[in-house]
Fold:
Amino acid sequence: MPRLTKIYTRTGDEGETSLGIKRRVSKDDVRVVAYGDVDELNSAIGVVLAQAPAEVLVGPLESVQNDLFHLGSELCIPPDERGELQIPITEARHIERLEAWLDELLLELPALDNFILPGGTAAAACLQLARTICRRAERSVVTLARSEEIGGEGLAYLNRLSDLLFVMARRENQLAGHDETLWDSRR
Structure:
């Protein structure tokens, strides 16, 4: 576990940052953008939790936050530079857990006949926002994977997570008795 004794270092004042292995790169490096988007997603899920969502969603969301920290640490150090470091890696078991939650939540929801508009309760709206941030994080990881190896199952995890966040938003609205707003393509 890292020990944070000082928060500011002044080493990033010129637009560079250190990867987990101390190599300096530009703050807009594709690797930094990818783990930065994952960090933003984690914060968005923190905002969801601050909205007091349905209890059935709290445990999974807290687990997802921990998983996203794993993914962020995985992304901040290129696989060929990890050496002896014990970096947590996103594995198939993490994706399987997301799929189990998805399957469980979907049992309680009616099938969709149309697209729905994001909204409803504050927690549901925040879940939809987290879903869109998740999609951006996924795109950033795709961009990184085009130029460098990423290792692990992070890309598949993000893909499945965005689905879960969508379903969680629907379930949150359902449990709160809030009707979904269907997209009106004729409007």
